[in-house]
Amino acid sequence: MEVHHHAHTEEKKWTHYLFEFLMLFLAVFAGFLAENQREHFVENKRERAYIRSIAEDLRQDINQLDSIIRTRKRLDKIMDSLLYLMNYEDPKQHGNEIYFYTRQIPRTFRFNTNDRTISQLKNAGNWRLIHNQKVSEGLANYDIVGHSLTQYIEQREESLVLILYQSIDKMFDNRVFEKMIDGLNFIKPTGNPKLMSYDKYDINEFCNRIHFRKNSNLYFIVVAEKLFNEANKTLAMIKDEYHLK
Amino acid sequence: MDALSLGIYNVVPCCVLWFLCRECSGTPGGKRKAHQYIQSLYEDLKADTTRINQLITYDEEKINALNNMYTCYNNVIRDMKATACMGVLIRHSRSNRGFVLTDRTLQQLANAGGYRLLAKEDADSIIVYENMYKGYLDFQTTVFQGAQDNVRNTLNQIADFKVMAPHQLTTATMANDTTSSILSGPLLFTEDKVLLNRWFNELAIYLRTTNGQRNSILQLKNKAINLIQYYKNKHHFD
């Protein structure tokens, strides 16, 4: 009968256990390094994705700002013409133009910034992923100018428009306005529609209100042009720093 | 010592070491992230301070000019055509500038749960700063804006457009206010002294609210400077 004997096991030295421990430790440490590298890799990838998205937002903002600035410059000319007719011509002879210009002035052409990416950066705490300090500060600066345009200026402009409406409601005939509507546009009324009041105090107050509205529009243009330049500058910087096309 | 015990003796210290490595290196879940937030906030505070300084200069010029309103009132009430002094008052009361906080880091701290990563004293000081800004903003958009609207509305009633407007229609930005204060003739469109008195009363309130706004923004600036100094010392920023 064959008998199996247990093989004789030699007592291991403590150095052998130390060696085993070190090997295991190195394996775990290598895993840790790999994980760290992977995190960096993922973060870099996310950073580039964010940057590409920001560049796209900036391009859209630039187009929108360009259009708004042109529209508001046209509005400035309209207000100029209206003030001229009210003060240096006989308003009774220019009813159709006065109605046509007045109806357009309360329109505020607002700027809606494309902040989908910047909002994501802020809300998800990912702004830190933008490692390039220059770009990060450029974006923060752009965000601030954008906010001052949308928060303060537009709100104040809105309050000036509401005040202007007090004069419009008093001096203009709503039936004439009603006939001027053509979809989203206005058409110049035919004939020479009359104002409800030619009182010199009413006209003076109306002109002063237009004056402040005009000034707020000019201020908007100045800030919008600054924002337009910031957007172009930031976009150029991003393209340069991240080698985007 | 059996194999199981030996395994445990090896694996447990390895795991502990791995955990310590992670803690020390500050993986994105920890200290590194907190440090990034603080550094970003530090940059934001520096940017805020620069803009606050501009605003304080703007408000102080306004306060100095409006302090002369009482002499001007005495002159105008005696002679309704002696309105030259009103040009300066109009220039400094026709509009105002607000301060927008750089919120890139504050929003991240609040929305992405970043506050929990910071030391308690860091988080508390930031919250105090943010609350001070909210107080300023509330004052700016309610009390101050109300005073601004009142003073402008009454001006619309008393001022002759042909005298006021041509000299005032310039673009005025915070850094470069080129609005003229010279009037081309007597400003008043009406002889109504009650209305004139109302404008000066509203101007006095406007001056008080401008003072209030300046003090509020000054406090905010001091807080920002304290925070900058605090972070500079604590985290050794440049």
Short overview:
The complex is a heterodimer of chains A (245) and B (238). Chain A has 245 residues and is mainly alpha-helical.
How are the SSEs ordered, and which strands pair?
The complex is a heterodimer of chains A (245) and B (238).
Chain A: H1 14-88, H2 95-104, H3 116-123, H4 133-171, H5 174-179, E1 181-182, E2 185-186, H6 200-242
Antiparallel strand pairs in A: 1-2
Chain B: H1 3-25, H2 31-66, H3 69-78, H4 86-91, H5 104-111, H6 120-158, H7 161-168, H8 193-235
Helix pairs in contact in B: 2-5, 2-8, 3-8, 6-8
Describe this structure in words.
The complex is a heterodimer of chains A (245) and B (238). Chain A is mainly α. Chain A has helices at residues 14-88, 95-104, 116-123, 133-171, 174-179, 200-242; strands at residues 181-182, 185-186. Chain A has one domain (14-242). Chain A has six helices and two strands. In chain A, strands 1-2 form a two-stranded antiparallel ribbon. In chain A, α1 (14-88) packs across α3 (116-123) and α1 (14-88) runs antiparallel to α6. The mean pLDDT of chain A is 90. Chain B has 238 residues and is mainly alpha-helical. Chain B has one domain (40-235). Chain B contains eight helices and no strands. Chain B has helices at residues 3-25, 31-66, 69-78, 86-91, 104-111, 120-158, 161-168, 193-235. Chain B is rod-shaped and about 110 Å long. Classes of the chains: A mainly alpha (245), B mainly alpha (238). At the A-B interface, α1, α3, α4 and α6 of A face α1, α2, α5, α6 and α7 of B.
- What is the total domain count of chain A? 1
Strand coverage percent of chain A: under 5%
Number of helices of chain A: 6
| Global mean pLDDT of chain A | 90
Largest sheet of chain B: none
The class by helix and strand makeup of chain B works out as mainly alpha
Spatial gap, N to C terminus of chain A = 83 Å
Helix content of chain A: over 70%
Shape of chain B: rod-shaped
Q: How many structural domains does the protein architecture of chain B include?
A: 1
What radius of gyration of chain B results from the CA coordinates?
28 Å
What's the number of extended β-strand segments of chain B? 0
Low-confidence stretches of chain B: none
Write down the overall geometry of chain A: rod-shaped
Beta-strand level of the residues of chain B, as a percent range? Answer: under 5%
Please, how many helices of chain B? 8
The run of helices and strands of chain B is: HHHHHHHH
